[in-house]
Amino acid sequence: MSDRKFLPVKSDVVFRMFFADERNEAFLISFLKSVLRLPEEDYNKIEIADPHLLPEHIGDKFAIIDVKLHTKSRKVIHIEIQLRVTSELRERIVFYGSKLITEQLSSAGQYDEIQKVISIIITNDKLITDGEGYHHRFVFYDSEACVEFTDIIEIHTLELCKLPYGTDGTELYDWAKFIAAETEEELNMVAERNAQVKGAVVKLRELSADERARDMYERREKAQRDIYSLQKQSRAEGKAEGKAEEREIWQGVVADKDAEIAQLRTQLELRGNLIN
Q: In the 8-state DSSP scheme, what is residue 124?
């Protein structure tokens, strides 16, 4: 059991448990508003889609737990946390965004029915090497003519490692510091500065006090460490036989993840009702 008093939001499973909880919708909307340029009415209804687990090439990289949303106008928002930046990450982000586009077309679908797909990629490592800003927005754009072709696919990157020590006065900075926080002092500082984030800190501490939530986090971390160690050993020995072992490691971690999260929410709701 970790001595950490709170679960780190930059863990993908904790991020999902926190922001994909309907009771925390106000925090989710506040975070989205700090990142995106969407019409205000889009936030009037945010629908959290079924939990997504991306197991493709599980033998080559960590399984990915993400958050998929629909806005009132049915725009698709995909949020993913990647603590380690891999060499193929950019290509996979584009591929998955394209997949979310093609999923919208039925056999009789029309191109003008396609809704915008927005990816928010949160990394702990440096992803964009050409700039020091911690937030970037990418669309199809002619850099010479300074003309945007389309924003049907929009990619936002949020690099936690680039956050400056002092606030830049934006809501995005406060939410990024909340996600990146590793100490109680960092949480308290951002809570004192932002009332909305202060409420999120209270909810995070409630989640962190739940033994089942902590167990899910610990098992996720152990699986990632085990797979990273196995991959490192396989590379060192020039072997490719590690994939079956990696799948076995994940079997007990991700198979019942979504059911566990649902049960955990029910448990927390019951506890809240008893307190009230």
A: S
